[in-house]
Amino acid sequence: MRNGETASCKWKGQTDACEDLPKARVARLAECHIKQKAGYNQHASLISLHTDLIPNLLVEMKKDNKSDYTINFTRKALTYLNKHTSLQEPEAVKLFISTLNTSNAYKRNLCIAYNKYVKHCGLSWNMPKYKPEAKNIALPTKEKISMLIANAGRILSLKLSLSNEAGLRPVELCRLKVKDIDLDHKTVNPTTAKNGNPRTIPLSPTLTQRLQEHIIRNNLSPDDLLFKGNASADLYGKQYRSMRNKLSSKLKDPSIHKIRLYDLRHAFCTRKLNDINNPYTVMVLMGHKKLETTQRYMHLLNLNDDEWTVDGATTVEQAKKLLEAGFTYQTTIEGVQLFRKRK
Questions:
Q1: Are residues 204 and 186 in contact, defined by beta-carbon separation less than 8 angstroms?
Q2: What does the alpha-carbon distance between residue 237 and residue 230 come to, in Å, rounded to a whole number?
């Protein structure tokens, strides 16, 4: 600075109008600007730090053999929370979750995801308890399910048929390997999700044939995924919803838009309870750990009592053919074995 010159209080971004302000006020504004910039940088640095901790947690979850579904949801939940509050402040996170206009079930899942972050970072909090709202299970009709399967492309149609006939969770279906399909015995042996019990589920001859053609067409080996490529449960859900919504708009039928992918599993459970009339057997087929979970579907029984096809058998061969066709034995009257199955 030369003799006779005054110090400039100008900062980057200052307008010419500021030069008309009293010099003391300009100096104060410059000081505030510098502090705000420093505060912003500090805040951005903290966000970066918290964001870096999320991948570290996900890596630890992978090492602990957590499922891909759990890891992916934890990632999305923490990323969402990090956008709206500070992950390093449990009370702030608790307050933010409490103000969300969403279901208790979703709030509960957010808390479970954040609780993993709290433990990973050595923080402490009293995790709030959100009790999911009790909901009745709404079943799609057999006709609507058939329409959805018929309208889907070849691969998506095969996946939906498998979901419908075997009652698989989406994540279970996407984990299937070729060796999990027993073509000789017409069964599927999924790796059960949610720490459920292992199970073997019968398949119809028609679906078994389609699966065999799929395996041959794609030259799949026993250890290959049954559905190669990006076969995540999330993608399966997105592809289904896209197809479903287009069909709903095309037919101008809003009821189709309400059918969730998971409803195919619900429909399977209810059909089996109707056909077998044994909750314990259905519990095994569903991979449920508790009978109470299966019994949630009991109120849906006998909604369509008249939708049965009845047939009889007088020889072992006739009985075998009916069982292979999906019929279930009911009783024997005057030497005739009676079977039935849903239309």
A1: yes
A2: 12
Which residues sit opposite 313 in a β-bridge? Answer: 337
| CA distance linking residue 163 with residue 173, whole number of Å | 7
pLDDT tens digits, 248-298: 999 999 999 999 998 998 888 888 877 777 777 888 788 877 777 777 666
Same domain, 319 and 219: no
DSSP 96-157: HHHT--S-HHHHHHHHHHHHHHHHHHT--------PPPP-PPPPPPHHHHHHHHHHS-HHHH
| Residue 72 clears pLDDT 60, i.e. is over it | yes
Cβ–Cβ under 8 Å, residues 315 and 336: no
Task: Enter the pTM of the model.
Answer: 0.63
Same domain, 260 and 149: yes
Q: Is residue 279 part of a domain?
A: no
Question: b/e map of 295-318 (b: 16 or more CB within 10 Å)?
Answer: eebeebeeeeeeeeeebbbeeeee
Under a CB-based contact definition with an 8 Å cutoff, are residues 288 and 199 in contact?
no
Are 192 and 259 part of one and the same domain? yes
- Say if CB 130 and CB 111 are below 8 A apart: yes
Does 155 map to a domain? Answer: yes
Give the count of alpha carbons within 13 A of 74, CB side only. Answer: 24
Domain that holds residue 72: 39-121
